[in-house]
Amino acid sequence: MELDVPELVRQRALANGEAGRTWLDELPEVVATLTRRWGLELGRPFRSGTAAYVVEAVDAHRNPCVLKVAMPLEMDDIAGFERSVIVHRLADGRGCAELLDHDADRSAMLLERLGPNLADLG
Question: How many separate domains does the chain show?
Answer without folding.
Answer: 1
